[in-house]
Specification:
Length: about 230
């Protein structure tokens, strides 16, 4: 089985020999790949809604992997038992949705070794939460697929050395590694901030003014990072 670039990059972050829980597995492509390639002895795949849940079961059964991949229906990490999975994958959701899923199951999260997260938006908010909860960002990468940029964040228990909220917004490992896709990613982030500023300009409230200053500061820091780019 061949994976998309995004899923292949996520799979490359999985340490060999661990049990993985793929939350919101869709068609179970990642679990099937991890088991077929011998990366994982067992995977728990979860889905909330009945349609995707049935699709995942069918895909696993079609490959004859129902003995190694268990598909469960449920919300977030609730279908998991504490200590059952050493690695959690949460991909294709908003950063704040991922944060809420993790926060809602502290007992399960406490026994997890590694988080592999692919937020569609709000990656900065997710990083800030992770660092505040005692996770360190061990790796980050950007992947381009079908004209869209995806950020992948890998976190493990420990103290994050970067505390600068602006760097955490951008991605400290992306900056340190000089990820070749970072300038394009930051350009998209700048365009997003410009749209926010335009919307805030229509309001005369003090809160809107404070938010506009905050966004302007973020944009200035992004410009600093881009100036240092080779």
């Amino acid at each position: 089985m061949r994976l998309t670039r995004r899923l292949a990059a996520i799979a490359a972050c999985v340490p060999p020999g661990v049990v993985v829980a793929d939350i919101g597995t869709d068609h179970a492509l990642l679990p099937i790949y991890l088991v077929e390639k011998g990366i994982c002895p067992r995977v728990v795949a979860t889905e909330l809604n009945p349609g995707p849940y049935r699709s995942a079961i069918e895909a696993v059964n079609l490959q004859g992997l129902d003995g190694k991949i268990e598909v469960r229906q449920g919300d977030g990490l609730h279908p998991l038992l504490p200590g059952e999975a050493q690695v959690i994958v949460l991909a294709g959701m908003g950063g704040n949705t991922i944060r809420q899923i993790l926060a809602d199951s502290p007992e399960v999260l406490a026994a997890v070794r590694r988080l592999i997260l692919q937020p569609m938006v709000d990656a900065g908010d997710l990083r800030l939460w992770l660092v505040g909860e005692g996770w360190r960002l061990v790796d980050e990468m950007l992947v381009e697929e079908d004209g869209r940029l995806y950020v992948i964040v890998v976190a493990e228990r420990g103290r994050e050395k970067v505390s600068d909220p602006y760097l955490l917004e951008i991605g400290p490992r992306l900056v340190e590694k000089k990820d070749p896709l970072l300038p394009a990613y930051l350009s998209k982030l700048m365009a997003h901030y410009q749209r926010i500023l335009k919307a805030l300009a229509r309001s005369r409230s003090s809160r809107a003014e404070e938010k506009a200053l905050e966004i302007s500061d973020k944009m200035a820091r992004i410009q600093e990072v881009l100036k240092e780019w080779p």
